[in-house]
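Field: COMPLEX_INPUT
Field: COMPONENT_COUNT = two
Field: RESIDUE_TOTAL = 225
Field: MODE = joint
Values follow.
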Amino acid sequence: DTAVSQTPKYLVTQMGNDKSIKCEQNLGHDTMYWYKQDSKKFLKIMFSYNNKELIINETVPNRFSPKSPDKAHLNLHINSLELGDSAVYFCASSQKSDNLKLFFGSGTQLSVL
Amino acid sequence: SQQGEEDPQALSIQEGENATMNCSYKTSINNLQWYRQNSGRGLVHLILIRSNEREKHSGRLRVTLDTSKKSSSLLITASRAADTASYFCATSARGGSEKLVFGKGTKLTVNP
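Field: COMPLEX_OUTPUT
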């Protein structure tokens, strides 16, 4: 009955590889997000989707491509992984009418070697 | 930048003491929220205060907002070891894009 679930929890991969992180929410929310948290715990928004439509793209390299097949899912595909991509990636969701109160997944720790 | 800044960066107290964390931000806001992050976990929403509110309570939490100083404080009373976590403030800008911008967090340690 997890509200926002993302997989995998840990991802260790070599530079240059392509990987995906999946996210699903069962809260009935209409907006989903990807945030990146660096080693200093700084949390920065990457993307947000509202009803499958991209509404925020925060100057993220185009190696990162989000995909929202429906409003309950927002996946993140990363091409040509670089060392600097190592971080914890959080998926979150909210209801547009609810003051941007976010519900977070438990995070995916990505380590690029 | 809209980004909030928490103060202090780290705080260590004894169980039973009160913990106060501060947040400053730069732009006009719609609301300010506080989140908690336990080690290795996602953030959990604690409390939201709107720009026209000055104080809000939820259990052992008390949040104040001073829009003239662009600052907020989070007070946790009678702290417990389980309150050990990082605490983040987050703001949504008035008239801005619909995104929540987080501060850098305060790491709170409550010693038993």
